[in-house]
Design the sequence.
């Protein structure tokens, strides 16, 4: 196993951080690694807002559903899908900007953000830092957009706490490979694999002194929610993502 694979396989999300700062050079490297990711048509549809201010991290902690690690970690990076620069490119070229009328823009933006986030995570972890992604930034996006002064065509997708961890954690087990890797065609026979994973999941929780619960129970409960999460159904449109073709 090489160093890159070792770093990727050693991932865990931390929810407790030491107070010490993240060195500016390390932060720069993390963002450059995120920027090095591939992107749709090289449009680079990602922006990262680096929040170090304690007061602003505190506000984002509350807006993310009172997640204390957001205030505790010395740096909070907000990964946004960003078509604002594409709109400006259109102005420079005298071309209309049409992309945000298509629901595909959401797939493009979310994919670009996901890849960039993943690069940033790998870079941070390889530098001895700990992280946790925070989808909680999508709970109250109207307030997050206002706080970070995001212009039209920019939308906060996920945050990332970065800092030196103040805890040790075992790795969280994953689904069996066969549940995820489908040879040639999709195999929907996953019940048995999920049941096997439930046992592993329970053992993991027990080892940590947490209440034992099946993975399927947690996920099933979470996905009963409707709307799923946050206020994106209102704010996406306000930011210019009208997705007109979805309604036709
Ligand atoms: C896009 C994304 C958003 C997430 N949002 C949150 C969050 O808001 N709060 C939280 O405590 N964990 C969050 N997580 C962390 C997941 O719960 C965690 O990755 C998962 O339980 C697997 O654990 P591990 O990362 O330690 O392996 C998020 C993860 C991802 C990928």
Sequence:
């Amino acid at each position: 196993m090489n160093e890159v694979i070792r770093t990727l396989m050693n991932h865990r999300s931390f929810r407790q951080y030491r107070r010490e700062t993240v060195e500016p050079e390390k932060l720069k490297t993390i963002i450059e690694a995120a920027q090095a990711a591939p992107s749709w048509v090289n449009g680079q549809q990602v922006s990262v807002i680096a929040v170090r201010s304690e007061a602003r991290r505190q506000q984002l902690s509350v807006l993310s559903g009172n997640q204390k690690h957001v205030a505790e970690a010395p740096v909070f990076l907000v990964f946004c899908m960003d078509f604002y620069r594409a709109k400006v490119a259109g102005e420079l070229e005298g071309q209309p900007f049409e992309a945000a009328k298509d629901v595909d823009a959401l797939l493009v933006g979310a994919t670009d953000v996901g890849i960039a986030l993943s690069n940033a995570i790998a870079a941070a972890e390889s530098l001895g830092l700990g992280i946790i992604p925070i989808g909680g930034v999508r709970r109250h996006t109207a307030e997050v957009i206002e706080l970070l002064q995001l212009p039209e065509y920019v939308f906060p997708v996920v945050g990332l706490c970065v800092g030196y961890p103040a805890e040790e954690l075992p790795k969280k087990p994953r689904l069996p490979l066969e549940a995820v890797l489908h040879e040639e065609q999709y195999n929907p026979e996953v019940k048995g694999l999920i049941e096997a994973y439930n046992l592993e999941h329970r053992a993991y929780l027990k080892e940590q002194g947490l209440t034992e619960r099946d993975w399927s129970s947690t996920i099933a409960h979470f996905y009963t929610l409707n709307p799923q999460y946050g206020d994106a159904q209102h704010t996406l449109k306000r930011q210019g993502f009208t997705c007109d073709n979805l309604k036709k």
